[in-house]
Amino acid sequence: MTATVVYRLPDTDHYVRIRSRHEPLRLSSCEELNGQQGFVFSPFAVSEDTPLLLIRSDEVEVLPFKPSGNDTVSVEKVLFDREEYHKDFQCFHTELLNRHFQKIVLSRHVDVKCCERPSPMHLFVKACTLYPHQFICLISMQQSGTWLMATPEVLIEKQAGSPAWHTMALAGTMREDGPWSEKDCREQQYVADYIAQHLANHAIEVRRSQPYTCMAAHLYHRCTDFHFILKDDRYIGNVISSLHPTPAICGIPKRETQDFILQHESHDRKYYSGFCGPLQMNDATHLYVSLRCMLLMEQNCRLYAGGGLLDNSDETREWRETEYKLNTMLDVLR
After folding, report:
1. Residue 93 burial by Cβ neighbours in a 10 Å radius (0-12, 13-18, 19+)
2. In the prediction, which pLDDT does 23 show?
3. Which residues, in sequence order, are bridge partners of residue 329?
4. Is 40 within 8 Å of 22 (Cβ atoms)?
5. Spatial CB neighbours of 21, under 8 Å, sequence gap ≥ 6
6. Which of 13, 34, 53, 68 has its CA 20 to 30 A from that of 240?
7. Whether residue 120 has a cis bond before it, omega within 30° of 0
8. pLDDT tens readout for residues 216-256
9. Of 61, 46, 45, 49, whose CA–CA distance to 1 is shortest?
10. What CATH number is attached to the domain comprising 214?
11. Where does the record place the Chorismate-utilising enzyme C-terminal domain (predicted)?
């Protein structure tokens, strides 16, 4: 097989396996998703090295999910560079203090050395067991490598047979439930206002919820839901292009912060903070932002996490937030 995808939607008791004998379709922009069907895997920023990929399904199986036991992967060492994050934080924060950006997301990665090559399917099942309320996805193909994610964030979705679409503004992080800080409220408000502004160009009957606290893995986030009707479903690619990347994983203003991240962040995000999921398959779409994810390699796993910075952000607090987020995937390995 050229490409294999396994995914489980939140709060379901089955998973879907997609196999394709054909090369994934390489797309150069989200707009090219108009009128398409298949499984989408998009990077943070489309490039020659990280194309937007559309997988056409030759085989689709719906299989019952059986929770795993407490098997662990033998981890040899966890490698990270605190000094690298410090330099990136200073660089990014200076732009905020100089009022060049309102918000920007800084990410980092850690490399986990394993004593033996982890089984991707084993890790998928363990992630499903640990995180029943999140979108779990395992993607493997030559063009992208092998990725596993357990993400809580919907980019855009629609149930089969329904005309209504849904997206969310998810931002702000706490380890324990409690009152939200001014920084977290402002950060999440930026995302919600951005989504509302861009939906106005593509949707009618937009219903926006009040912000509320939701839980993902062991962390609390601040969330606003949007339910709406698209003016024309045929142009779903245009809608996706308008939304992605949202300020939840990029910044404000969008293009300027994305360019800055690509030029100055110390690592290449690749498919981290992109999006993935089934598009218009059986009349349903479930696209999720690729968060809490890792790239699986030979005896090595690269885990990614990030956090939104504002002008009043504190480096120690932001570093700690990425540590909490990295634990989502570390717990799958432990």
Report:
1. buried
2. 92
3. none
4. no
5. 1, 2, 58
6. 13
7. no
8. 999 999 999 999 999 999 999 999 999 999 999 999 999 99
9. 61
10. 3.60.120.10
11. 82-325
Calpha distance 17→57 (Å, rounded): 9
**Which residue in 263, 286, 266, 262 sits closest to 276, CA to CA?**
286
State yes or no: cis peptide before 245, omega within 30 of 0.
Answer: yes
pLDDT of residue 144: 95
The whole-number average pLDDT for the span 48-62 is: 94
- Portion of the chain with pLDDT greater than 70, in percent: 97
Other CB atoms within a 10 A radius of the CB of residue 150 amount to 27
Cα 142 to chain centroid, rounded: 20
Taking 70 as the threshold, does the pLDDT of residue 11 lie above it?
yes
pTM higher than 0.85: yes
Distance CA(305)–CA(95), nearest Å, equals 21
Number of domains present in the structure of the chain = 1
Distances (CA, A) of 111 to 69, 139, 218, 219, 330: 25, 19, 21, 22, 10
Closest by CA position to 127, among listed 5, 7, 221: 7
**Alpha carbon distance 222, 208 (integer Å):** 14
Residue 282, Cβ neighbours under 10 Å: how many?
Answer: 10
